[in-house]
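Hi V.,

Quick status before I head out on leave. The structure for the redesign project is tokenized and pasted below; the design run finished overnight.
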């Protein structure tokens, strides 16, 4: 019994000392930007950090999702290695590292999904001086749902107290605005008005205009001019999940591969499909590669309907660890079985070879679903074989 009591006391003491050290780290970093939302978190994190660095503010950043690197003030990326599965306590070590790097600003992407942990992430760990909620869309409904309005409530957990919040969300901004008012937080909805559409042309990948507008607004709020911040953003390394286009010539066939794996909800996937307009060239085959992670059954069930109802392709290739729900859902909704190739468990090399095999003279291949696992490996393969990106 005494040993149990001593162990409990030791754990409590460790927790107190750890949090006191974290408070010291917080006080040493005067600018703390916490990025949450459904889509674009990693991109906006990188854009804001790049803009602040360009403005002469010594800035560190930490993303999650497609990759989880710590990026120091010099722009160098290092993987954050933690024992066990991802945990919001990881952010404590990020703040400690940023303090050692003498960062004046730290931009961190929210790691939490559960509504209670989103609140803890903001109000116990980050205590942001600037909050960002990119948008509110239907994803992770098994954790934050069941409705999109419930997602808005969950994301509102990271509305900071007494500082400022920026968002690109317009349709469901009411909950964010009311929470900001309750917490004495200044609230800004950022649109793309006044920002020329060609402002994204200078990026080495396909960046969304609303992400750029949001990041520019935050940088301007923190004292960096729009032109300076934009130059820094254009020069920054994109997130691995950024939408990229790779042109490959293989066996006398021309293949244009669109990496849209990070657009993994219905609304985002539909937006990418509309922007890419794969049917605009009638002389090329349209192929969809849907990569599913085994640990995301909710997303797999959704993608059966997305393939059948939203994506008009000549052939659909299913990849990753959980393809059966996609296949069952798509065929139930009328997608012909002979247009679907189930390559569950096959590696990226096999899928690449199959894409080449089923391509006629020319094709456009659009990757959707998940960037993790097979999706990410397939992107690397196309990138390595590409004539142009």
């Amino acid at each position: 019994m005494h040993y149990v009591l001593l162990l409990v006391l030791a754990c409590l003491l460790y927790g107190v000392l750890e949090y006191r050290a974290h408070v010291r780290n917080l006080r040493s970093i005067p600018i703390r930007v916490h990025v949450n939302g459904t889509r674009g978190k990693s991109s906006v994190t990188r854009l804001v950090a790049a803009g602040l660095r360009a403005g002469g503010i010594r800035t560190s950043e930490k993303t999650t999702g497609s990759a989880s690197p710590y990026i120091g003030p010099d722009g160098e990326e290092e993987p954050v290695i933690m024992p066990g599965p991802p945990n919001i306590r990881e952010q404590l070590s990020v703040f400690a590292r940023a303090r050692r790097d003498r960062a004046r600003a730290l931009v961190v992407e929210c790691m939490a999904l559960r509504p209670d942990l989103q609140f803890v992430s903001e109000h116990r760990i980050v205590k942001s001086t600037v909050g960002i909620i990119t948008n509110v869309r239907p994803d992770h409904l098994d954790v934050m749902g069941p409705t999109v309005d419930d997602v808005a409530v969950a994301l509102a957990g990271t509305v900071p107290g007494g500082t400022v919040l920026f968002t690109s969300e317009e349709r469901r901004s009411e909950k964010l605005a009311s929470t900001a008012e309750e917490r004495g937080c200044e609230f800004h909805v950022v649109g793309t008005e006044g920002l020329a559409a060609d402002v994204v042309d200078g990026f080495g990948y396909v960046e969304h205009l609303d992400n750029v507008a949001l990041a520019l607004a935050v940088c301007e709020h923190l004292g960096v001019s729009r032109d300076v911040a934009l130059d820094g953003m254009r020069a920054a390394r994109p997130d691995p999940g950024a939408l990229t286009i790779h042109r490959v010539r293989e066996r006398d066939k021309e293949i244009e591969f669109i990496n849209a794996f990070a657009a993994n909800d219905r609304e985002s996937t539909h937006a990418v499909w509309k922007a890419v307009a794969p049917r605009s060239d009638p002389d090329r085959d349209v192929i969809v590669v849907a990569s599913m992670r085994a640990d995301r059954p909710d997303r797999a069930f959704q993608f059966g309907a997305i393939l059948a109802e939203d994506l008009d392709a000549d052939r659909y290739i299913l990849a990753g660890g959980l393809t059966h729900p996609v296949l069952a859902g798509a065929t139930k909704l009328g997608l012909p079985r002979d247009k679907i190739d189930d390559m569950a468990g096959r590696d990226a090399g096999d899928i690449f070879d199959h894409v080449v095999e089923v391509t006629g003279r020319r094709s456009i291949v659009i990757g959707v679903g998940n960037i993790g696992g097979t999706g990410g490996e397939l992107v690397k393969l196309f990138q390595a074989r590409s004539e142009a990106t």
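Above is the designed sequence. The chain has a mean pLDDT of 90.

G. will cover questions while I'm gone.

Best,
W.
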